[in-house]
Each structure stands twice: as structure tokens, then as C-alpha cells.
Write a structure and sequence with these properties.
Elements: H1 26-40, H2 47-54, H3 58-61, H4 68-84, H5 93-110, H6 112-118, H7 126-141, H8 146-171, H9 175-184, H10 198-207, H11 212-233
Helix pairs in contact: 1-4, 4-5, 4-6, 4-7, 5-6, 5-7, 5-8, 5-11, 6-8, 7-8, 8-11
């Protein structure tokens, strides 16, 4: 699909005062889409709205992306690209995986609205391939054969992204809801009747201590401990 520029339009200028569509490129479109989603939420991302933000007809966007879904895949790869920026694998396979998981979490929390849209997607683009190669390489360095490295790669990445997108969903809530959920661990859970919920009442004073950082690190540690144990067994 294309946008007619009109035979009488001066060279390099679009009709009706719009900027030349030649100024559009994939980077600019993704930059604008990311800013729009972060500012107004996932529902704001439509081709027409994106075109308006770019100062162009929405059909001009389709010269660079086949549709909205391809834009979403581009945003998914943006998160991975941000996580990999400045990253270098460590000598130790476990430290490599820990660092990369933390970086991916940081990218999701920096762009929670985009993370809600994209963390379940397979972008099949350059940054994702690079990240996948790093993770698989670390698992092979741990001693796994190709089949097990593939299995543990999928499990590890899906778990890290699930944790990150869960936190991103909480970060995307309005302030009142987010604070209400946070305080529930210090109010309602502390008030549970021990006669009805004896085990919950026993641990209630410590539930609030398990904050986002603690839960992420605990889950990541458990998973990597299990991978290490299987590597030793292998």
C-alpha cells in the first residue's frame, strides 16, 4: 500500500503540509511507537494513531512494516536490544545467565507498557538471535548437549520473561492500585486469623520482606541451581 504524492507536489514535499514520507524509516517508526505506548498504553497503538504521531498518512507506515503485528515484533526486539547494550558474556556460564536475566528484567521495567505487549512474542530478529546464541552458548559451556541446551534455553528464557512481565504489569497499574497491592502484605495478610490460617499467620510478618528484587533473585537462583545440578549429573 502506498500514498500518492501528487504529480504537482514540489520535489521532497508531501501533500497537505505533511513531511515527506521518505523521512520515515523503521527506526523512527519504532521510536514513535515505543513513546506512544509508554505514554498512553498498549491500546493507543494503531496504525492511524501512529501515522498521526509521525505526521504522515498511516499507509506510509506500511511501506516499512507489513502491519501492526510486525511493529509489535520490532518493539519486542527493542527490549532485547536494550538488554544487550554493552553486555559481554562472562567466563562463568552461570554469571552470564544471571547478568542477562537481570538486564532483561531492567529493560522490561524501563518500558512496562511495551513489555506487556511484547514479552510473549518471538521477534525472530537480530537482537533476539544474538541473545539466544549467548544463552545457548552458556548452557553448552555448562556441559549440556544440544538437545538439553535447547530445552533449558526455552525454560530459562520463558521464566525470566514471565517474571519480568509480571512486574511490568504491576508497574503499569495506576498508583493507587499499585500501592494498595503493596500494602496488602502489611495489612490484610498480617490480620489473617491464626485459628483459620495457622501457617499463613506464622509467616505473615515476613511476606512483605519478599519484595520484587528478592522474588526475582530467589526464582532465578532456584532455576539456575536446578540447571547446575543437572549439569553436574550429566
Amino acid at each position: 500500500m502506498t500514498e500518492s504524492t501528487g504529480r504537482d507536489a514540489p520535489p521532497g514535499k508531501a501533500r497537505r503540509g505533511r513531511p515527506s514520507t521518505t523521512a520515515l524509516n523503521q527506526k523512527r517508526i519504532l521510536d514513535t511507537a515505543l513513546a506512544l505506548v509508554e505514554r498512553e498504553g498498549p491500546d493507543a497503538l494503531t496504525l492511524r494513531r501512529l501515522g498521526a504521531e509521525l505526521g504522515a498518512n498511516h499507509t506510509a507506515v506500511l511501506r516499512h512494516f507489513s502491519g501492526k503485528d510486525e511493529i509489535l515484533l520490532g518493539l519486542a526486539d527493542r527490549l532485547v536490544e536494550e538488554a544487550l547494550d554493552g553486555f559481554a558474556p562472562a567466563d562463568d556460564w552461570r554469571r552470564t545467565l544471571e547478568t542477562l536475566a537481570r538486564r532483561m528484567r531492567a529493560a522490561c521495567l524501563a518500558h512496562p507498557q511495551v513489555a506487556l505487549l511484547s514479552t510473549t512474542r518471538v521477534s525472530r530478529r537480530a537482537a533476539e538471535f544474538r541473545g539466544a546464541d549467548v544463552v545457548v552458548g552458556a548452557l553448552r559451556a555448562a556441559g549440556f548437549d544440544e538437545r538439553d541446551a535447547a530445552r533449558y534455553y526455552r525454560s530459562l528464557v520463558d521464566t525470566a520473561l514471565a517474571l519480568s512481565s509480571y512486574e511490568a504489569a504491576a508497574a503499569a497499574l495506576d498508583g493507587r492500585s499499585r500501592e494498595g497491592d503493596r500494602m496488602a502484605w502489611r495489612r490484610e495478610y498480617l490480620a489473617v486469623p491464626p485459628a483459620l490460617h495457622p501457617h499463613l499467620a506464622a509467616v505473615a510478618p515476613y511476606l512483605a520482606e519478599a519484595d520484587d528484587d528478592d522474588r526475582f533473585e530467589t526464582t532465578l537462583g532456584l532455576l539456575l541451581d536446578a540447571i547446575a545440578a543437572r549439569a553436574d549429573a550429566a
